[in-house]
Amino acid sequence: MRYILLLLFSVLLFSACQGVVEEETPPEKLKRYDLKGKVLSVNKEKKEASIAHEEIPGYMEPMTMDFPIKDDDVLNELSPGAEVTGILVVDNLKGKYWLDVRGIVAKPRDDQKPLPVKENVATIGKKMVDFTLTNQDNESVSPKDFKGKVWAITFIYADCPLPNFCILMSKNFSDAANIIAEDEELKDKFRLLSISFDPKRDTPEKLKKYILGYLGKDSKAANTDIWQVAVSEDKNVRKIADYIGLDYKISESDKTQFDHSLRTVVIDAEGKIQKIILGNDWKAKDLINEMKKALNNK
């Protein structure tokens, strides 16, 4: 008996030392509220911003408080005086909350001259930069192939090991592709394009297996051009990435991997950029809603 108790104690002690993996709260259990306010300060070390926000109907009176910001790209773009809109996400089960920033309008100081518009960097309403890539079927793909359709692009590489980066982007795109394929109205109007920035390893053959792995064998989108994955030599891919403000480079700690940011862009039927989505805090239905807005933007 003493041996059994000692063994049980050892197991419990080992488990305590290893720590308990905290399960994520199901998305349907989270509360979401529209928020609009003005940034007073940004603390990148703590990954939070102090924001004086307007009334949040049904939840909170106007006040100033610190909001956790999960996306580093968003933190880098925030500055005191900027006006922000976003979604306040509240996890009542764990007593947590954070701000999903959707829009940033930074006002220049009185003594600050406006910066000139960079002609080679994407802004809302500008034409998407031209390019030619090779897709998973070893066929050429370029913006002219999407003429008359609303389309979205994101960036990935097939060997990315991070669940919240390329894996999540491709899951969201495959989910969106399956939704589009099932919709009689949308399947002829919407298209998706993932661009690989790993031309040395991401051959068309590899990307073919990659896309089918995400879509599933019974997917109606599997044998269509609703979702394509394409690649080209680095200078061509980097031209597109630079245009929409996406950064990527070979990881210093592991030369087989890439360090990269996340950007997803929605383009209307005339080839004009309608939405630039930062980070990874979005789902397939969010992307489709943005594409529907672009479709109706006439």
Task: Please characterize this protein's 3D structure.
The protein is an alpha+beta fold. The chain is built from 6 helices and 14 strands. A 7-stranded mixed beta sheet has the order 7-6-10-9-8-13-14, with helices on both faces. Strand 6 and strand 7 form a beta hairpin. The radius of gyration is 22 Å and the shape is globular.
Q: How do the strands of the widest beta sheet line up side by side? A: 7-6-10-9-8-13-14
Low-confidence stretches: 1-21
**Terminal CA distance:** 78 Å
What is the CATH class name of the largest domain?
Alpha Beta
Proportion of residues in extended strands: 25-35%
Q: If you average the pLDDT, what whole number results?
A: 85
**Which architecture of the largest domain would the CATH scheme give at its second level?**
3-Layer(aba) Sandwich
List keywords for this structure.
alpha+beta; OB fold (Dihydrolipoamide Acetyltransferase, E2P); 5-stranded antiparallel sheet; 2 domains; Glutaredoxin; 29% strand; 14 strands; 298 residues; 25% helix; 7-stranded mixed sheet
Note the topology.
Elements: H1 2-18, E1 31-43, E2 48-53, E3 63-68, H2 72-77, E4 83-91, E5 96-105, E6 133-135, E7 140-141, E8 150-156, H3 166-182, E9 190-196, H4 204-215, E10 227-231, H5 234-244, E11 248-250, E12 258-260, E13 263-267, E14 273-278, H6 284-295
Parallel strand pairs: 8-9, 9-10
Antiparallel strand pairs: 1-2, 1-4, 2-3, 4-5, 6-7, 6-10, 8-13, 11-12, 13-14
Helix pairs in contact: 3-6
Overview in brief:
With 298 residues, the chain is of the alpha+beta class. Helices cover 25% and strands 29% of the residues.
